[in-house]
Amino acid sequence: MGYPRETADSTVTRVESSFDGSEGKSAAVGHVQRILTSLLGKLDICYGPVNTLPEAIADPNLLKRGAIVVGDDGRKHLAPVVRFKDEPSKPLYREPLLGEHTAEVLARRA
Fold it and tell me: I need a labelling partner for 99 at 20 to 30 A (CA). Which of 29, 36, 48, 71 fits?
């Protein structure tokens, strides 16, 4: 990538000096994200942080767009990405029950 080495070093040094490591794992992840944002922001590339699943489920933008659905058991899930106007997807958000499909599978084998 075409950036001056001293610019990258000074950015890392500046961000590292603001972090002492005593805040724990989530603070360390935020620290790394700040370093990468500082470095990548100077380049002509598309980038962005990747959320964890709990962060994605709590994202207000995803909630507003209806991208978070609640299964029958009350657990939250990400909605299917592909959506058709006249064919709403209705995925099954639970594990199959023991023996739930046995008769159907055996009937196909006969």
Answer: 71
Q: Where are the domains of the chain?
A: 5-40, 53-109
pTM, to two decimals? 0.47
The DSSP output letter for 21 is S
Place of tokens 């699943």: 53
How many whole angstroms separate alpha carbon 73 and alpha carbon 96? 13
Backbone angles phi, psi at 84, to 5 degrees: -110, 140
Beta bridge partners of 61: none
Distance CA 27, CA 20 (A): 10
35-94 pLDDT, tens per residue? 888 888 888 888 887 888 888 889 999 889 888 888 888 888 888 888 787 776 777 778
